[in-house]
From TrEMBL:
A zinc finger (C3H1-type) spans 263-293. It comes from Nicator chloris. One of its GO terms (biological process) is tRNA methylation. Belongs to the TRM44 family. It is an enzyme of class 2 (transferase). Its EC number is 2.1.1.211. Adenosyl-L-methionine (AdoMet)-dependent tRNA (uracil-O(2)-)-methyltransferase. It is found in: Cytoplasm. This is tRNA (uracil-O(2)-)-methyltransferase. Gene3D superfamilies: Zinc finger, CCCH-type. It catalyses: uridine(44) in tRNA(Ser) + S-adenosyl-L-methionine = 2'-O-methyluridine(44) in tRNA(Ser) + S-adenosyl-L-homocysteine + H(+). Signal peptide: none annotated. Keywords: Cytoplasm, Metal-binding, Methyltransferase, S-adenosyl-L-methionine, Transferase, tRNA processing, Zinc, Zinc-finger. Residues 263-293 form the C3H1-type domain.
Length: 296
């Protein structure tokens, strides 16, 4: 609707309508194919010659649509814009009815113009201002999307939380000690106890929890981001024992094995610095640097 000369490319992924999640209406098609048909239908109703293409990308959802030309003359823009407004209103009616579960609609694959559904006629005030209002209550996303996956938190704050949680697990009773029996070495390495996320959160101060609550996933996301130190399984937090990690597969192509080997020693080993027993692995086997002199 931005201009007659507008072209578009879209790669449909998540199943969403204009007002929420897309609701299936045909059982004879897969959910993906039905959603693709819906996205194509939007293009047709907006007056485009819609072309379908399959991208050569490593994804299961790689069908795209391209609108490079219009199916109507520039003089018909006002009529098509009114048609688009009616279609948006019909989809809004569908969204409300789906929530209520009281009204059933009969959708067609491509209605060639408008969905002939109950309530598809737009209010008069919305028809008259179709060129200036895209849809009532529409709120575009901010230009600068805020990153809220704990990645933008201050490094010193993250390090403090990691250290506090690790000490909590190490000092929890009863302690778990893992023996390294390889080569006859019976030295024990304290892996600590596992605790639920709720228990861990209960030991953190209110200021820390408040800061984490503003992030998506909160404490769990922060701990998962620190993969070197923690393992989060079924809502429980464990200290990671790198002796139990599977070694790199020898069946990998040479190029991939070389790239993974070159990624070693680019960060300091947290266990070498902070764990009371040091790192569970010898320096040559640890993917992290035991001291700054080993950093690549």
């Amino acid at each position: 609707r931005s201009s007659y000369s507008c072209c578009y490319f879209v790669l449909p992924c998540c199943f969403f309508d204009f007002h929420g999640k897309y609701s299936r209406r045909q059982s004879k098609k897969t959910q993906y194919r039905e959603y693709l048909d819906f996205v194509a239908q939007v293009g047709f109703i907006c007056g485009f010659h819609v072309e379908e293409d399959c991208l050569r990308i490593p994804s299961t959802k790689r069908v795209s649509f391209i609108g490079r030309s219009r199916s109507y003359a520039a003089a018909e823009c006002a009529v098509i814009d009114q048609q688009i407004t009616q279609f948006i209103n019909s989809r809004r009616t569908c969204a409300v009815a789906t929530c209520d579960r009281r009204v059933g609609f009969n959708h067609k694959d491509h209605c060639g113009g408008l969905c002939k559904e109950a309530g598809s006629e737009p209010p008069e005030d919305e028809t008259g201002t179709a060129g200036t209002i895209w849809m009532p209550g529409f709120q575009p996303r901010e230009k600068a999307e805020q990153i809220r996956n704990c990645a933008s938190l201050p490094r010193d704050f993250v390090d403090e939380v990691v250290l506090n949680v690790a000490n909590l697990l190490l000092n929890a009773a009863p302690q778990k000690s893992c023996s390294d029996k390889q080569g006859g070495n019976m030295n024990t390495w304290n892996q600590g106890e596992s605790l639920s996320l709720r228990e861990v959160a209960g030991h953190l101060n209110k200021e820390t929890l408040k800061k984490l609550k503003s992030e998506y996933g909160g404490l769990q996301t922060l701990l998962k981001n620190n993969h070197q130190v923690f393992e989060v399984l079924n809502g429980r937090v464990h200290i990671r024992d790198w002796r139990k990690e599977k070694p790199p597969s020898k069946t990998k192509p040479e190029v991939k094995r070389r790239l993974s080997a070159e990624a070693f020693k680019t960060r300091l080993c947290w266990f070498f610095i902070h764990h009371p027993d040091g790192c569970s692995l010898p320096s040559e086997a640890c993917p992290y640097a035991h001291g700054t002199e080993e950093l690549r």
